[in-house]
Amino acid sequence: SYNYAKASDNRYQSFIIQVDTGVLTELFREIPLKPYIGFSLGMMEHKNSSNTPSKDRGYLYGLNGGFNYVINNSFDIDFGYRYMDSDKLEYIGNRGDLTLSVHYYFN
User: Fold this and answer.
1) pTM for the complete prediction?
2) How open is the CA angle 100-102-107, to the nearest 5 degrees?
3) CB atoms within 10 A of CB 5
4) Closest to 22 measured CA to CA, from 62, 61, 60, 78
């Protein structure tokens, strides 16, 4: 995913790849709620354009998990949480993201 945000003099950009796998698949086989866990890798950049401009860029890594609610063979709704950390970013140590997504699957 690509994310961009701007707040006053601060600009944030990130590019994150997330890989997930289903867990407890036998237990959740008969119901539409499907749990998952995974990991994420990415890059983030923070720019500050105030009186003393600064730029911060580094790699991110972390874990994620959540639930997919399967509507049918073409759609599901995903609610997840992703925690990411970086030891290279000076101004941003870690970040947590809550996500709500709708997925469409081409059949």
Assistant:
1) 0.73
2) 155
3) 10
4) 78
